[in-house]
């Protein structure tokens, strides 16, 4: 299981929109969480995706890192932050 950092998201991004990016490349995260401001409930522009298959995690990093979605360049996994292994 790898936990990928997903960063530089729009503050308007939703879990559904980020999940759709993964779906476009055929990867289904086991969980996907966007961190939110505790007072406003608005997304903070980053989150984490847990992917059980290491090959699928590497596929997501290769395909999505640098992707220009929601007017920002996305950062995924090893190229932006640590990949956390459980």
Describe this structure in words.
- The protein is an alpha+beta fold and about 90 residues long.
- It has one domain: 2-Layer Sandwich (Alpha-Beta Plaits), CATH 3.30.70.
- It contains two helices and seven strands, in the order E-H-E-E-H-E-E-E-E.
- It has helices spanning about 15-25, 55-65, and strands at about 1-5, 30-35, 45-50, 70, 70-75, 75, 85.
- The strands form two sheets. Strands 1, 2, 3, 6 and 7 form a five-stranded antiparallel sheet that branches. Strands 4-5 form a two-stranded antiparallel sheet.
- Strand 2 and strand 3 form a beta hairpin.
- It starts with a strand and ends with a strand.
- The relative contact order is 0.32.
- Residues about 80-85 have low confidence and may be disordered.
Apparent shape: globular
Got a strand count? 7
State the end-to-end distance.
Answer: 6 Å
Query: In CATH terms, what is the architecture?
Result: 2-Layer Sandwich
Query: Approximately what portion of the residues adopt beta-strand conformation?
Result: 25-35%
Radius of gyration: 12 Å
CATH topology: Alpha-Beta Plaits
Percent in helix: 10-25%
How does the helix and strand content classify structurally?
Answer: alpha+beta
Tally of individual helices: 2
What order do the helices and strands follow?
EHEEHEEEE
Taking the sheet with the most strands, its summary is: 5 strands, antiparallel
Any idea what the CATH superfamily is called?
RRM (RNA recognition motif) domain
Low-confidence stretches: 78-83
Question: What is the CATH class?
Answer: Alpha Beta
């Amino acid at each position: 299981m790898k936990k990928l950092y997903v960063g530089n998201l729009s503050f308007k991004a939703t879990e559904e929109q980020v999940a759709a990016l993964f779906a476009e490349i055929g990867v289904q995260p086991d969980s996907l969480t966007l961190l939110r401001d505790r007072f406003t409930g608005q997304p903070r522009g980053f989150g984490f995706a847990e992917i059980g298959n290491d090959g699928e995690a590497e596929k997501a990093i290769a395909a999505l890192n640098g992707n220009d979605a929601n007017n920002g360049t996305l950062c995924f996994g090893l190229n932006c932050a640590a990949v956390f292994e459980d």
